[in-house]
Amino acid sequence: MLYHLFKYLDVAYDLPGAGVFQYISFRASMAVILSLVISLLFGKRLIDMLRDRQAAETIRTLGLAGEEAKKGTPTMGGLIILAAILLPTLLFARLDNVYVILMLGSTVWLGLIGFLDDYIKVYKKDKRGLAGRFKVIGQVGLGVIVALVLHFNDNVVVREQFKIANIADAPEGVEVSTINGQLMYFKDIKSTTTTLPFLKTHEVDYSKLLFWMDDEDANKWAWLVFMLVAIFVITAVSNGANLTDGIDGLAAGSSAIIGTTLAVLAFVSGNLIFSDYLNIMFIPNQGELVIFAAAFTGACIGFLWYNNFPAQVFMGDTGSLALGGIIAVLALMIRKELVLPVLCGIFLVENLSVVMQVSYFKYTKKKFGEGRRIFKMSPLHHHYQKLGYAEPKIVTRFWIVGIILAILTIVTFKLR
């Protein structure tokens, strides 16, 4: 919104200083600051309002240390996160950018699903919340929409670069540029290519999975493969974030680390020079996602002001489902979804610990007549609580692991 306003003022009235809004770095910085301010100022009022309306979390009796003290703590605090993401993005991002529009829609979509779940738990006194099938339908629906927009929208393209020895080698009518001392020209194409670390080219096309088809048919139907990947990634990551939100500050802090990393990758993917240097695909018009990712990171950090141990508010599914879904959609947009198993390693391990625990319990119950467990309790953070570790120590160590995974994710783009 402000981008368009100050661009008009700059062009029409040559307003001094208005041109600074053309810089993504400035707008991203302002988005971080505003998201922090919104979290801190709006957060306190929302917590008081939730407490007055008795929007308290129903704490299950699991035999964990400190669970009694958590009873009566307000939930649905994810509204703080959503407000701190949406308002700065609306103010500082370009609202005519398809990536920004899709991210705003995805945030609201998953926020509503989580809000309905929390509302049913709190005010309808139904511990099960929104039926699981409706959550899955919402996640699958979002995956379908995201995949269709990213494949069929005319403004979503990948810019292929072709290196040449001299200008005469370029096709007639194309613009030739010099990047890092190398002559090259560019061509915008629709593509189902994504980024895969460790490969020499860093790229793989989903059409290659349709190996039984000829190249023409494989390219024609590759979008269906991409849609299945989008559905799986959005469902897996949003549920992983939901499972991670079990102790104070873990989900918000982990998401802030992931959001910062995705902001860096979005900046690199949208910058011609850096994308060429790192040998990753350049995606035009994607720099605006840096502003959204900056607001996302600021919102998560600001929420920690009230969610660190001992928490004054829980984010609930309103926050956790939205956080995971935002991360997944953002990764799909910048064609980095295949690095999420590394970057979102915390979410992955939390997911796997539940799957392993449940599967092993059912298997041993069928085979031996009684269920046995791999962990003392799942998700994994509860296992460490059962071992006697304090919540702050568990959260801090998980954050450290998350930082290591984030660094490793970025490093992989130079390893091939």
Can you tag this structure with a few keywords?
two-stranded antiparallel ribbon, mainly alpha, globular, 416 residues, single chain, 3-stranded antiparallel beta sheet, 62% helix
Structural class: mainly alpha
How many DSSP-defined strands?
5
The end-to-end span amounts to 41 Å
Main sheet: strands, sense, barrel: 3 strands, antiparallel
Strand content: 5-15%
Strand order of the largest sheet: 1-3-2
Please trace the helix and strand order, writing H or E for each element.
HHHHHHEEEEEHHHHHHHHH
**Residue windows where pLDDT falls under 50 for at least 5 positions:** none
Helix content: 55-70%
Q: Tell the overall outline.
A: globular
Question: Can you offer a commentary on this structure?
Answer:
- There is one protein chain.
- The chain has helices spanning 2-13, 24-52, 67-70, 78-92, 98-123, 132-152, 215-244, 250-269, 272-278, 289-307, 316-333, 340-343, 345-368, 380-386, 391-411, and strands at 158-163, 176-179, 182-189, 193-195, 203-205.
- It is mostly helical.
- α2 (24-52) runs antiparallel to α4.
- It has a 3-stranded antiparallel beta sheet with strand order 1-3-2. Strands 4-5 form a two-stranded antiparallel ribbon.
- The mean pLDDT is 87.
- The chain contains 15 helices and 5 strands.
